[in-house]
Specification:
By secondary structure, the protein is α+β, with helices and mostly antiparallel strands. 41% of the residues lie in helices and 19% in strands. It has helices at residues 2-17, 27-36, 51-59, 64-73, 106-111, 140-151, 160-166, and strands at residues 41-46, 75-80, 87-89, 92-94, 96-97, 104-105, 120-124, 130-135.
């Protein structure tokens, strides 16, 4: 079974490079793939009613260069901040919490440190450790820098300010 997951993962990554859209995974799918073939995880936390989430989908996540960097370097997860499905992770079941007119899902709320701001982009290391949470809309040019910073592990030896000052965009 493990070999099958690895083979499918490798095949899908070759296929993804030629795709015109991001192959969004569920949180559970990304964690399963990460166990077999570790790589950083990008999580887009959104809601259906969020205008800036939709704008980011249309203007940022549809950019060919953004798609290429994401497919090459990350498992990409689309996580609804108000999802009603339970998510089992690290032997804990995260659930939807009804609160007022709208509720929230525990897992995205924890990833956002309780600040329910949509969209929020979360970066996890290949060891599933939180690297950064970035709230708000990100245009393609800004997002490209952020993706390169985390995909190439520039964060290990460079602070963001130094990296950003010296970064040359490919857009």
């Amino acid at each position: 079974m493990k070999k099958l997951v690895v083979i499918l993962s490798l095949f899908s990554s070759f296929f993804l490079f030629s795709q015109k859209k991001i192959n969004w995974l569920s949180f559970s799918e990304a964690m399963a793939l990460n166990k077999e073939n570790p790589k950083p995880i990008l999580i887009d936390i959104y809601t259906d009613w969020c205008g800036y989430c939709k704008k980011m989908d249309v203007q940022t996540y549809s950019n060919k260069k953004i798609i290429k960097v994401i497919h090459k370097n990350f498992y990409a997860v689309k996580l609804d901040g108000e999802a009603k499905r339970d998510i089992l992770y690290k032997e804990h079941t995260f659930t939807y919490q009804k609160k007022g007119r709208r509720g929230y899902h525990e897992l995205p709320a924890i990833l956002m440190n309780g600040k329910l701001s949509y969209p929020t982009t979360i970066f996890l290391s290949e060891k599933e450790e939180l690297l950064q949470r970035i709230p708000g809309y990100l245009d393609a040019k800004t997002f490209e820098k952020i993706l390169v910073y985390f995909s190439n592990k520039n964060y290990v030896n460079n602070d963001w300010e130094s990296f950003e000052k010296n970064y040359k965009s490919k857009m």
